[in-house]
Amino acid sequence: MKNANVKKLVSFGAIILGAIMVIYALSAMRRISNAKGTISNFGRVSDSSTSRFMTGSLNSEASRYDTKVMVLLVAGIIFVVAGCAGAYHYKKHYRKH
Fold first, then answer.
1. Contact yes or no for 8/90 (Cβ under 8 A)
2. Are 39 and 58 in contact (CB under 8 A)?
3. Distance from C-alpha of 8 to C-alpha of 31, rounded to nearest angstrom
4. Is the whole-model pTM more than 0.90?
5. How far apart are CA 70 and CA 86, in angstroms?
6. Which residues make Cβ contacts (< 8 Å) with residue 27, sequence separation at least 6?
7. SS3 content of the chain, % helix, strand, coil (to 5)
8. How many CB atoms lie within 10 A of CB 35?
9. Is the pLDDT of residue 59 over 80?
10. Staple partner for 87: which of 8, 11, 47, 73, CB 3.0–4.6 Å?
11. From its phi and psi, is residue 95 left (phi > 0), alpha (psi between -120 and 50) or beta?
C-alpha cells in the first residue's frame, strides 16, 4: 500500500507542477506579445533606418524566447496529462471498493 501512496503523491505532484508550468508559460507568452506590440508601435512612430534597425533588433530579442516558452507550455501539458493518467490508474486499481 505504501507504493500506491507514493504513486498517488507523484501523480498529484505532476498535476500541480504541470499546471504551474502552463500558467507561467501563458503569462510569459502574454508578456512577449505585449513587448512585440510595444516594439511594433515604436517602429510606426519613426520610419528612419535607425528605428528600423532598433525595431528589428528588439523584435528578434523578444522572439528568442518564443521556442523556450512553447517547450515549457508543451511540457506542462504533458505533466498534467501524465499526472491525470497516474491518478486515474491509482483510482482504478488501488481504491478500496
1. yes
2. yes
3. 35
4. no
5. 24
6. none
7. 90, 0, 10
8. 16
9. no
10. 11
11. beta
Question: Each residue of 70-96: pLDDT tens digit?
Answer: 999 999 999 999 999 988 877 776 666
Residue type, position 67, single letter: T
| Alpha carbons 50 and 61: distance in angstroms, whole number | 16
Q: Please check the confidence at residue 1 and state whether its pLDDT lies above 60.
A: no
DSSP letters spanning 15-42? HHHHHHHHHHHHHHHHHHHHHHHHHHHH
Question: What is the tens place of the pLDDT at every residue in 12-50?
Answer: 999 999 999 999 999 999 998 888 887 777 666 666 676
Q: How far apart are CA 44 and CA 87, in angstroms?
A: 52
Name the helix (H) or strand (E) containing 56. helix 49-63
Distance of CA 51 to the CA centre of its chain: 32
Provide the grid cell at 94: 488501488
